[in-house]
Amino acid sequence: MIFSIWEKRKIPLSWLLLTRQPLRLSVAIAGICFAGILMFMQLGFRDGLFDASVTVHRLFDADLVLMSPRSMSSISMSGFPKRRLIQAMAHKDVVGITPVNWNFLLWRNPETLITRSILALGFEPGDPLLKDPDFYTKAQVLKNRGRVLFDELSRDEFGPIPDWYRNGRIVETEVAGKRVRVAGLVTLGPSFGADGNLITSTETFKQLLPSMPPGSIEIGLIRLKTGSNVEEVSYSLSNILPNDVKVLTYQEFIDFEKEYWRSSTSIGFIFTLGAAMGFVVGCVIVYQILYSDVSDHLPEYATLMAMGYELKGLLGVVAREGLLLAIMGYVPAYLSGQALYALVRNSTKLPVAMDSQRAILVFILILVMCMGSALTAMRRLVDADPAEIF
Amino acid sequence: MTNLSSIGNIVRQTSHLGANPSINIENLSHWFGKGSMKRQVLNSISMRINPGEVVLLTGPSGCGKTTLLTLIGALRKIQQGRLSVFGCQLNGSVRKTRQKLRRQIGMIFQGHNLLRCLTAEQNVQMGADLIQGLSYQARRHKARQWLCAVGLEDQMSKLPHDLSGGQKQRVAIARALAAQPKLLLADEPTAALDSVTGREIVDLLRKLALEQSCSVLMVTHDPRILDVADRLLKMEDGRLIHSSE
Questions:
Q1: Structure confidence at residue A265 (pLDDT)
Q2: In this complex, do A389 and B109 lie within 8 Å of one another by their Cβ atoms?
Q3: Residue B10 burial by CB count (10 A; 0-12/13-18/19+): exposed, middle or buried?
Q4: Which chain B residues are Cβ-neighbours of A386 within 8 angstroms?
Q5: Among A4-8, A82-86, B185-189, B218-222, the range of highest mean pLDDT
Q6: Which of B105, B113, B129 sits opposite A10 (nearest CB)?
């Protein structure tokens, strides 16, 4: 079967048409590649920013999350009474709770003495907070007052804390005007709202933020019995609890944050528009290339028609040119995309990475771009009148 | 051997007598333009060309020779009259029929019309690729054979713009013959060539066409090549005015 197809093959006209004009081909590839990179970058930034908004959210060990209905996003958290979380404990499927304080505090860079806003989480060091199994032992140092765990992935503007700490220095600085000591490093990652993170005990948190009403928390983590129906428990808890608190599943908690950035800010729109512009630019370039290619070769196409080649077959030649351009443009775009993502990751610490879904999406967009342009360029081919070439 | 060739001769002679002509034209007329701009280019042309015949068509420019050629080549629609090629009526034929018919007609153009992006060998193979049911190797072999037959065995991998005018025209002939046509239409194949090369090309064309028992209809202005013809047709103002053996 394969052999017979191989035997039936003809001269690879599309390939030769493209490769025998290296200048035009390289312009076309550069254009498609540019469009592809633009789409990769814009979509990558968009997804990266949305993912970045939940870097900390993803690390929590919880099945359900209690939040104040007035909380709009991680950068504007409102408090709710801790009693609600204790009430939730009464549900038969709930096995554990962790009250968490969540606020932005001013961190002084111990090297430059410049202050900067950092996300501070406060919790009881005896409670589980993160999924990371090593975290529990690390957190025990927080039982001492004035101790914090510093996120080693925080942006460099907070000071060279991880280096100093690893070199055995005692790292002390001010948070919200109070002296704290870095008692360990954790790995969380900066998010969209927060350039850096620190974790401390509820007691230290209260000390740092004395204006906070006692018994008020921003997030309540709830862990359920294994095998319990998360949706059902969420529903029954929201019926039991008064409406000064809302119950979210863990996934809803993550989506809630992402949705804020997507809908309440122009980020999603801006980057989608950027990607759309890349697509349009690519379309224009590919169309120009294919159209002039078809126009230049019109007498040759007409000759082939006079020889008895069918129009259908010649349309196939143009279509294959489009397909070849798509593939030849996509490969360098993909590789450059990978390199640029690495560059962005290193300089912004945003979680921008090539995921297969986006890789496929961009390929499909490039394919649509090339085939659409080929299709439009084909209209020119219909003008090829074999009677004109005599 | 002698028997076989004499039978061949008889077959040839009888077919010459014209039971089944390659081309049969009756009262063919053709107009260009519309309304008041309408202009008649062909006026009641009747003629027939038999298999294996080499016919030359001459006449002043603008007398409709090329139009007649495109009509026979199934490249235009018939407006009035009857035209059949290999017994296939072209009046009111659908595009598909004309497309199929074209595969049996080889065409050689004034400008060689080679594909610029293909080598000489690949250009000829574009002709051979039209033959159904042959393997790639066989078609390539055929292309090479034809290039050898036109004397270009050393130029196979050259692109058209590296070839001289005469060489390009030879490639065009090889390409037209590689599709194994039963009829060859040539529109001033020597127009762009000097007299010596032109003569060579025409002799080559005649020789190869005869070997394939392929009829040839050639439009020409060139008085030096008239002697290759079995028959000479003259046209003036859209009419066939003179026909001589």
A1: 79
A2: yes
A3: exposed
A4: 75
A5: A82-86
A6: B129
A309/chain B closest Cα distance in angstroms? 7
Q: Which amino acid is at B100?
A: K
- C-alpha A112/C-alpha A104 separation (Å) is 20
At A10 the pLDDT is: 82
Give the pLDDT score at B15.
Answer: 43
In whole numbers, what is the pLDDT of chain B averaged over residues?
Answer: 83
Q: What is A376-387 written as a DSSP string?
A: HHHHHHHT--GG
> Which residue of chain A has the CA closest to B219?
A390
* Residue percentage of chain A with pLDDT more than 70: 99
Stretch A79-108: mean pLDDT: 92
User: Tens of pLDDT along A177-217?
Assistant: 999 999 999 999 888 788 899 999 999 999 999 988 888 99
Q: For residue A199, give the amino acid letter.
A: I
Backbone phi, then psi, for A369, in 5-degree steps? -60, -50
Mark out chain A residues that contact chain B at CB-CB < 8 A. 6-11, 13, 16-17, 20-21, 297, 299-300, 303-310, 385-387, 389-390
Residue B4 confidence (pLDDT) above 60: no
CB contact under 8 A, A306 and B75: yes
**What does the buried/exposed string (b/e) look like for A100-128 if buried means 16 or more CB atoms within 10 Å of the residue's CB?**
bbbbbbebbbbeeeebbebbbbbbbbebb
pLDDT at A194: 87
**pLDDT number for residue B14:** 42
Which phi and psi angles does A86 have, rounded to 5°?
Answer: -70, -35
Q: Do A303 and B113 touch (CB under 8 A)?
A: yes
Q: What structural domains does chain B harbor?
A: 50-76+100-244 (3.40.50.300)
End-to-end CA distance of chain B: 31
Amino acid at A165: Y
Task: State mean pLDDT over B150-175.
Answer: 89
Q: Are A189 and A56 in contact (CB under 8 A)?
A: yes
